[in-house]
Structure formats: C-alpha cells, structure tokens
Amino acid sequence: MGFLDIFSSGRATRPRGIPHNERINALSDGVFAIVITLLVLELKVPEVEPSELTHELREMLPKFIGHIASFLVLGIYWIGHHNMFMHIQRHDRVLLWLNVLFLMLVASMPFPTGLIVEFTEGQLPLIIFFGTLAAAGVVLDIIWWYATRNRHLVDENIDQALVSFVHRRVLIVPLIYIIGIGVSFASVLAAQLMVIIVALVSIVPNPLDRFHSEQVQSTGQEGE
Amino acid sequence: MGFLDIFSSGRATRPRGIPHNERINALSDGVFAIVITLLVLELKVPEVEPSELTHELREMLPKFIGHIASFLVLGIYWIGHHNMFMHIQRHDRVLLWLNVLFLMLVASMPFPTGLIVEFTEGQLPLIIFFGTLAAAGVVLDIIWWYATRNRHLVDENIDQALVSFVHRRVLIVPLIYIIGIGVSFASVLAAQLMVIIVALVSIVPNPLDRFHSEQVQSTGQEGE
Amino acid sequence: MGFLDIFSSGRATRPRGIPHNERINALSDGVFAIVITLLVLELKVPEVEPSELTHELREMLPKFIGHIASFLVLGIYWIGHHNMFMHIQRHDRVLLWLNVLFLMLVASMPFPTGLIVEFTEGQLPLIIFFGTLAAAGVVLDIIWWYATRNRHLVDENIDQALVSFVHRRVLIVPLIYIIGIGVSFASVLAAQLMVIIVALVSIVPNPLDRFHSEQVQSTGQEGE
Amino acid sequence: MGFLDIFSSGRATRPRGIPHNERINALSDGVFAIVITLLVLELKVPEVEPSELTHELREMLPKFIGHIASFLVLGIYWIGHHNMFMHIQRHDRVLLWLNVLFLMLVASMPFPTGLIVEFTEGQLPLIIFFGTLAAAGVVLDIIWWYATRNRHLVDENIDQALVSFVHRRVLIVPLIYIIGIGVSFASVLAAQLMVIIVALVSIVPNPLDRFHSEQVQSTGQEGE
Questions:
Q1: pLDDT digits (tens, 9 = 90+) for B77-131
Q2: Residue C14 has pLDDT above 50, yes or no
Q3: Are B138 and B174 in contact (CB under 8 A)?
Q4: Calpha distance A13→A2 (Å, rounded)
Q5: pLDDT tens track of chain D, all 224 residues?
C-alpha cells in the first residue's frame, strides 16, 4: 500500500471510508449560512409611530444582544467544523449521519435563541439554549473521535498531539455551556455572561492554530 | 477513442452526457440545507406568560417529534442523493429535469410536515406526508435507472451488482411509505411509527456501504 | 499567444476577463435553491377544523398549481443559466453585474407568484408575473450576448452555430411570456395556459442538447 | 522546504496561513444568496380586493425602491468580497472571525432595510441603514489590510499598486455612507439619493478592473 501511494497522488486506498467530502461541507455551509441569516430575520421591524421608534429600538436591545450572541456561538461551531473537516478527508455512512445530527442541532438554534430573547429572565430558556449548544458541541467531538479512530477517515500520519488538541479545544465549548447550566440555578445573568467567555476562548488565537496550520501544510491532504 | 481513453485520466468521451455535475449537486445541497433549516423555523416561540412556558413546551412535544422525523427522512434522501451522485458523473437535459422534479418534492416537505404536526391524529395529512416522500423516493430511483441505462451517465465499468443494490436500497424507502399509507387505514399511530422503521433501515450500516465504498475506490471516477 | 496555449493547459490568457466563475455559480445556485424552496413555504398550513381539511386543501388547488408552475419556470431558467455558464469561463465587472441583475429578477419571483396565486383571475398579476420572467429571460440573453461578443468570456473556438442556437433557445422563453401578456388582454385563462407551453418547449430534449454536449466535449474547457 | 516549493505546483509553504478558502467562500456566498432573496420576501402580497390592487401596488413603490437599493448595495459588497478573495488564498483564525463579523453585518441587512422601507421619512432608520453598511465596508477593508499585511495570506508577489487600489476602492463605499449620515442631518431625501451615487461608482467599470484582471492572470494563483 505504502509503496503505491507514491503513484496515486497522495490519496491512498485505505481500509474504510470514501473520499470526497465536498458535499458534506456544502450541506453544512448551507445550513450554517441559512441559520445565521435567519437569526437576524427574527428581528421584526417595530410597528410603531415614527416618534416612538427610538424608544422602541432601545427596548429591543436585549434582542439585538441575544442575536449577536447566537451569531457568535454559531460562528464558533462553523469554524470548529471547518477546521475539523480540513483533516477529515473521507466519509462513511456513520459519519454522514453524525454530521446530519450535528446539523439538526445547529438548524434548531433559532428556536432556543427565540426563547432566550423572548424570556430574557427565565432559567428554562437558558437551559434549552445551553443544552442545545452543548449537545451540538458533544456531537462535533464524537465526529472527531469517530473520524480519527484508527485514523480511518483522516490522514494516517496525523499527529496524535493534534488529535488530542482538537478534542480539548472542541470539548471546552460544551463544557462551559454545561457549567453555564449549573450556574443558571444560582444566577441567570451570570450564566448569560458565560456566552462571552466562550466567545473569548474561541476568538483569541492559540497554540492549536499553529498545530493545525503545520499539520495541514505538512500532510497537504487536499494538495492539488 | 477507446485507445486514447487511457491517456485522458479516466474521463472518456462517451456517446451521451456532459461531464461536471457540480452545479447539480450545489443546487441540491442548497435546497436540502434550506428545507431542513426551515422545518425547524416553523417552530414558533410560544407567546405565553413565563410561568406557562414549561407547560407550553410540553404541549409542543408532538411538533418537536414531527420535525425531528422530517429531518431524519430528509437526511435519508440527502444521503441517498449524495451516494447516487458519487456514481453519476455526467448529465443531460432529462437528468437535469428529473433532478429538478426530485428537488420540487423535497422542497415541498415543509407543507406536509406542517400538516401532520398540526393535525396529529388525521389520516389525510399522513397520506400526503407519506405520498410526497414516496414520490420523491420513486423519482430518485428513476434518476438511478435513467443514469445507469446503457451506463450512459455513470462509469462504464460500474458493477451490475452495485446498480441493483442501489435500486433495492433506494426503493425500500418509498415502499415502506406506501405500506405506511395502507397501514394508516387501520391505525394512524401504527403508520406514524413506520417512519422510525425507515430511519432504522437507513441509519444502520449495511452491505451496500461496502459495495459503494469499494466501487468508488476501484473506479476512482473523480480521481484528481 | 496561440503557440503558448498548448502549454497552459487549455486556459489561455485572453485580452479581457478573469477566470474562475465558481463563486458566480455558487451565488446563483444559492439564490435559485432559496427561491424555489421559499415558493413552497408560502403555502400555509390551513388553520381549520380537521373535518374541514379535505375541503380546504381542495380550495388550495389553484395555489398548488401556481407554485408548481413557478417551480417549473424557475427550473427552466436555472437549467438555462447552468448550460450557459458551462461555456462562459471567465468574467469581468460587467458580467458580474449582469448576473446580479438576473438574480435580482429571479429572487423577486415569490412576489409575482404570490400575486397570481392570490388574485387568480386578475390580469395585472399575470402581467407582472410574465413581465418579471420576460425581463429575467432577456437579461439572461444579454449575458450570453455580452460573454460571446468577440468571444471574450467564452472559448475562442466556440461554434458560431452554438452561439446562435443558445440565443434562439434562451429568447424563445421570454418571447412566449411577452405573447402571454398580449393574450391576457383577450383571456387570462388562455394566458395562464401558456406557462405550460413554455415548460413543454424547455423540458423536451432537442437538437441544442446535442450541440451543447458535443461542444463541451470537444473543447473540454473545464477539463481537469 | 524552500527548494521543494518549486515542485509543489505554485503553492508554497508560507510562514502563516492555511490554504483552501473554498468553505469561507461557500459560507459567504450562502449568506449573500439568502439575504438578497429574503429582502424580496419581505414584500408581502397585499391583502386587498382585486379592484384595489393597482392602487395598492402603486402605494408599495417606495418599498420596491428600498428593496432594489438594498439589493444593489449588497451586490456591491458581494462583488467586492468576490474580487478580494480572488487574491486572498490562505486563512487563519483571525481571518475566519473577521469574515464572520462581515457576514454578521451583511446578514443583518434585512432589519435596517425594513426600517427605511417602513419609516421612509425618518432620519434614524437611514442612519442605522448607512451605519450598518459603513461598518460592513470598514470590516471588508480590515480583511484586506489583515490579509495583505506582510503578504501573509495573499500571493507574495502581489503588486503594491493593486493592494492600495483595492483599499481605495473598498473604502470609498463606506466613506460615501458616512457622508450620507452627515447629509441626513440636512436632508433625508438627499441622503437617500446617495445610495444611487454608490451604485454608480461601483457598477461603472474602472481602472481597478484592469489591475485586478492582470494580477490574477500573471500570478495565476488558482491555476489548476
């Protein structure tokens, strides 16, 4: 096998998994694009007199913040999915279904977002919001675990340090959401602020980026 | 021509059909992404007092189940379409229109889903829901039949066993829906449960996956 | 220039136009996917008693037909755009804007469709519906005219017969719509039936398909 | 590494940045496609008697103009993003987040558009509309600034004149919007007319196009 790899332009026949994940990515990008756009669409233009518009828009401030927060947490997951599928090069039926499950959770986000935006002081909406996101994060990690198991859907030479790093990186997000659910029993406001912590953890560049970058460049898995 | 095929990297000029199905796939992925996202969007945030929210969400349980079911059945068809178009490498006008017809049935799913979710105990909504899905499944099979006829839109060396296998695999889904329509005359609830049977048949890995996988790897039809 | 073409894998540097139309196609596929899906979304689940559902759905029949007709006419334009951009291989600012204009007309279709579906017997809605479609068809032809002018955005060796054929093929559709507007002054119903004529003209395979097919295969413009 | 770059088909390993921006483009195209389609969807079919339809549609004229204007300004940004990402060939975490921020502003456009369409004479809606667009334009320019800094995400040999040209070209659009905000304090109508100026500046071909065209052809960065 190893010897013939030289002639098959880097994409060797491996025990399991079918190459070409383009459509998995296309479906996923489509779902993310629609969800983040629809989140904003939920913001209804207020039906008030022109003179009351300023006041009304100020009243909508919690809604704006809720939607921006949703946008950011979805951005985090899109980037996570994007980076993960730079390494996942093949698929099988189980991976397709895991990804559909992940997308189902992502696609459902307008509902929990609508809940926290309508019931800003409620604990239940926040638990549903955090719970959906935590479930999506866990499924994303299962995808990574499944794909890297025996390296059957990733590059055989992928660095074990990278595999572990991605796990930690992906899991920290749902972990914070689960902690947020716990915190919500003490203070809903404190739990809401945890979304900002997640955003900071994800936006600030970190050592994973270099790992990720070097790995992609050394294996060159999509190298044409 | 046959001799030169050796040098044209596996994509020989064949009697009919134009290569490059990327945009067919892109349109299809777009329609699927939108439909599965919109299904969830139909779930409206309840306009009740905060104290009634828990009760209200419990009331919405049938809706949640209905939408998850729709998500799964659409997931089945996306995966079916995805796997089928791994083998279909060329197109002509008839294939384009068959695919548009398939997408029209897929795009119409929010309406039947809305019907079964609103009229949970009715037989007519279930017949429309199953009927639309069965029609989509049959069109998907016609696409396969058309594409493999004389092998004019698939790889010439495609294994006949794979062709037959895909047919059986694709047709079992609408068949169960048609049986479900029959069952609905006896019991609507029993018919509803059949959606779960379809999901199980489709999610559990099976011999087709290995066929599919081996075929893709041996012909390497998108092999750059 | 001609001599060096041999070494530049078929994509020669030409006086004007930038290669890579992938994103033009992606944006266009996205708009089409959304529009055809949203058309169906306009169909609202009737809010009636279960016992009245059968009657209500029968009442909705003109709406169903209206949406299927819209779906078909959009399918025609997507296929036309698809086939045209198999030959258009480069772009410039003017082409980008012509395509944005075309997409604006396509994206606006839910509004005229809503009009003819709500006002089934009105002439004005039909004129707006046909007018929007005719405008889109004319813009599509202008795109073709612009791209083939001096061959500056298509393959230099494109067959003149094909260029003319595509013009005739594309223009026949808006022509029928314009005739339809005229007919609507005599009979709205007769004008409505003309949509079916357009569909038949477009769905039935014809000599263009062979031209198109042969041209794509002989020039192999996306040939990797 | 440096020596082997010669053999790696023009895509050399560079200090920072990961190749393959396909999914960034796919997500962006998706968001644009949805937003421009949803803009039109906001146009509700009037619920009036058939005899009042003509009058009602005439009443809706400001809405039509508002939506066409939104369509054009979004078209300008899509084309700007498209042209910019012809040169940006790699990405890192910061670029991904800058792009998500840009898309968030783009995705939010239906809300300000709804405001100016509902409150046609108000100054506040126009400030929000121009402000959102100006912010999107500035973020787009930051993306360009970030990507071309040390050339770390663009072609190393990119012409400095092109870099500056794109900056000027991109920044002129938000600049006009900011001037528009100032003008709105004097006259709302005059400020509204400035949208047309922006459109004219962007649609008319200009020297940048040639620069852009030549640069793409000489570096051939996506050259397979």
A1: 999 999 999 999 999 889 999 999 999 999 999 899 889 888 888 899 999 999 9
A2: no
A3: yes
A4: 10
A5: 333 333 333 444 445 688 889 999 999 999 999 998 888 777 888 888 888 999 999 988 888 888 888 888 899 999 999 999 999 999 988 999 999 999 999 999 989 988 988 888 889 999 999 999 999 999 999 999 999 998 889 988 888 988 998 999 899 889 999 999 999 999 999 998 887 777 777 777 666 666 666 666 665 444 33
How close, in Å, is residue D44 to chain B by CA atoms?
18
The H-assigned helical ranges of D120-206 are 123-148, 160-186, 188-203
Separation in Å, CA A102 to CA A96, A105, A201: 10, 5, 21
Searching chain D, which residue's CA lies closest to the CA of residue B33?
D30
Residue D153 contacts residue D91 (beta carbons within 8 Å): yes
Between CA D111 and CA D70 the distance in angstroms is 11
- Rounded to whole angstroms, the Cα distance separating D157 from D178 reads 34
Between CA C202 and CA C69 the distance in angstroms is: 13
Q: Determine the residue type at B164.
A: S
Under an 8 Å CB criterion, which residues of B touch C?
13, 16-20, 22-24, 26-27, 29-31, 33-35, 38, 92-94, 96-97, 100, 103-104, 107-108, 110-111, 114-115, 117-119, 121-122, 124-125, 128, 224
DSSP A13-63: --SS-EE--HHHHHHHHHHHHHHHHHHHHTSPPP-S-GGGHHHHHHHTHHH
Collect all residues with Cβ–Cβ distance below 8 Å to B58 and sequence separation of at least 6: none
Q: Which helix (H) or strand (E) holds B92?
A: none
Name the residue of chain B whose CA is nearest to D34's CA.
B34
Q: What is the pTM of this model?
A: 0.88
Distance to chain D for C206, nearest Cα, Å: 32
CB A42 within 8 A of CB A49: no
Beta strands B90-91 and A18-19 are: unpaired
Q: What share of chain A is helix, strand, coil (3-state, %, to 5)?
A: 75, 5, 20
The residue among D108, D88, D94, D97 whose CA lies nearest residue D39 is D108
Kind plus residue range of the DSSP H or E element containing D151: none
Q: What are phi and psi of C154, to 5 degrees?
A: -120, 180
Residues 6+ apart with CB under 8 A from A201: A172, A173, A176
Measured CB to CB, residues of chain B less than 8 Å from chain D are 30, 33
Instruction: Write phi, then psi, for A223 (nearest 5 degrees).
Output: -75, 15
User: Which residues lie closer than 8 Å to A211 by C-beta, 6 or more apart?
Assistant: A159, A161, A162, A165
Rounded to whole angstroms, the Cα distance separating C205 from C198 reads 13
Distance CA A78, CA A80 (A): 5
**How far does C70 lie from chain B, in Å, by closest CA?**
11
Chain centre to alpha carbon of residue D186: 27
CB atoms within 10 A of CB C71: 24
A217: closest CA of chain D, how far (Å): 7
Tell me what ipTM this predicted complex has: 0.85
Q: What is the dihedral angle through the alpha carbons of A171, A172, A177, A181, rounded to the nearest 10 degrees?
A: 100
How big is the CA angle at A186 (ends A181 and A191), to the nearest 5 degrees? 45
Interatomic CA distance for residues A99 and A105, integer angstroms: 10
pLDDT at D65: 85
Question: What CA–CA distance (Å, rounded) separates B88 from B95?
Answer: 10
Contacting residues of A for D110, CB less than 8 Å apart: 40-41
Give CA B28 to chain center in angstroms.
10
What gap in Å lies between CA C173 and CA C199, rounded to an integer? 9
Calculate the CA D57 to chain-centre distance: 30
For the stretch B183-205, pLDDT in tens is 999 999 999 888 777 777 777 76
